[in-house]
Amino acid sequence: MTTGWYVAWLNNCVGFGNHRYFFLYMVYTTLGSLFIIIFGMGIGINSLVLSDGEGWFETEPLEGHPVRFNISGHALPITEMNEYGEDGVMPVHHDLPVPHELGNNAAKHRAILFMAIINVAVVLALGSLSFWHSSLIGRGETSIEAYINRAETKRLTNLGKSYTNPYNFGKKKNWRLFLGLVKGRSWWRHVLLPSTHKPEGTGLTWHTVSSESQLLQSEDDWP
Prior knowledge:
Pfam families: DHHC. This protein has a domain at 13-51 and 101-216. The model has no long low-confidence stretch (mean pLDDT 78). A hairpin with a 4-residue loop joins β1 (5-7) and β2 (12-14). The longest helix has 37 residues, at 102-138. By secondary structure, the protein is an all-alpha fold. 47% of the residues lie in helices and 3% in strands.
């Protein structure tokens, strides 16, 4: 059944019946994480590098006398007390935003940091795995067949012979067979949009390069 490998977090093997689903899951998850990273980069920079980006900024100059705070710890005598209204000058009213709770800022900071770590890890892990499987699909191989073909190539090379993968029909045809783009199926309808179409064949018998010429003369829908 062309079992490729065992996936621990799915508790299942990836093979003939679910290879396409697993591959598209990795690709779309990687693209989704990239989307979050690209369009959330500004939020992450403001929160993790600069500040939370929600502090108060002065948009107009304040009028009145400056206020000095005594942070030295020493008691200073008051030599003059000025009450507003005695000289006919009233204080200028400014509506300042209420500062956020420190706990909320800390929770927001941790949440953004968690999201950043998760998305970067997903892009690195699933992105590299998707790239590797893309190269295998282009060569018409599974992960197990890659090791078998490598061993056979080395063995026959030592004998002065060349080895040809019997399931390699070229990159374009390999991808069409893998995605099931036969019998009128299209990229937009059956790849970009969710589709439950089954892979072609039974998973027990397989067409090979040597039988391709016979398939082209038959009535089968062969890409």
